[in-house]
Amino acid sequence: MADLKALCMKCRDANNKPTMQTMTNPKVEEKNGRYSAKGQCAVCGGNQFKFMSKADAEAMK
Ligand SMILES: [Zn+2]
To answer: CB within 8 A of 2, min separation 6: which ones?
Structure first.
């Protein structure tokens, strides 16, 4: 499985901006025809959320 990366609101850089971190335990969800993934940040364990294309969502199954 390819690494899924999402912005982590807790892992911030020197400019206090959220940074891209690897998502662990991603769970793909479909809602109203839109796909998203929920998981935890590999660095801090905080919750992450990301919208995905259908192709990306299918690839996660
Ligand atoms: Zn984090």
So the answer is: 59
The pTM of the full predicted model, rounded to 2 decimals, is 0.82
| Number of structural domains in the chain | 1
Residues, CB within 5 angstroms of ligand 1 (ion)? 8, 10-11, 21, 41, 43-44, 46
Q: Which domain holds residue 31?
A: 4-60
Tens digits of residue pLDDT in 13-45? 999 999 999 999 999 999 999 999 999 999 999
Task: Give the distance (Å) from ligand 1 centre to CA of residue 13.
Answer: 11
